[in-house]
Amino acid sequence: MSGITPAGGIKSIPPIGGKRIINMHVLDGQVIVEYDEGNMAIQTLVLDPGAQGLEDQFINVRNETGGGLAIGDLVYVSGWDEVTSRWLIDAAQALAIGANLAQFVLRSAIADGTDGQAHKSHRLTDQDTSSAAVGDPVYLSDSVAGGFTLVAPSFSRQVVGRVAIINAVTGEVELFVQAETDSGFVRSEPGSGDHPVRSINRLADGTVEIEYDDVAAP
């Protein structure tokens, strides 16, 4: 993966009283610009104000995918349910085309048609981590929806955690989903031979950095 930024970057310097650009993402081949105080998903995800750190933050969610979501599943916000006032979620997957990157992880299973919570972090136990080393990155899986992999996918390489304990049976993985470094709002649908957009990141100085995969779409 290479980091590619337009010359000079993209900076938001609004006039007095204007709205600051805080994020950009690609949707169905179009670049969507999100403004501060705008009606955007990343801003309106209401987190727990009593949590002690980002890793403890969560949102109230609902599963209407038609199937169950398991403990440790990596998920993204797919919609909103006005009846229950909860965010709809679905399993994230690092597909080559049309990837939905992870925004949260589940600490408990959520059956179809029921409510639950989605967190920013979770410790997965009883994993086979024998092929890794402590501290190795864990990636969103490109083959299993909601899963992780220790091998970097060819496309949409989103780091979602680190290996904590090495063991073939009782290994442990610390999942920590950080949307600020791997945008959960990138949907890249490149044509054959084009390089997919991996992520669009907002830097501390306001620059928007667009990252592309080195491997072109088949």
What does this structure look like?
The protein has 218 residues and is an all-beta fold. It has one domain (2-12, 21-212). The chain has one helix and 15 strands, in the order βββαββββββββββββ. A five-stranded mixed sheet has the order 7-5-6-4-8, with no helix packed on it. It has a five-stranded antiparallel sheet with strand order 9-13-12-10-11, with no helix packed on it. The longest helix is centred in the N-terminal third of the chain and has 4 residues, at 41-44. 34% of the residues are buried.
Q: Which tags fit this structure?
A:
2% helix; mainly beta; 218 residues; five-stranded antiparallel β-sheet; 15 strands; 1 helix
Secondary structural class: mainly beta
Apparent shape: globular
Query: Would you count the extended β strands for me?
Result: 15
Approximate helicity band: under 10%
Distance between the termini: 16 Å
Order of helices and strands: EEEHEEEEEEEEEEEE
Question: What is the subunit organization of this protein?
Answer: single chain
- Side by side, the strands of the main sheet go 7-5-6-4-8
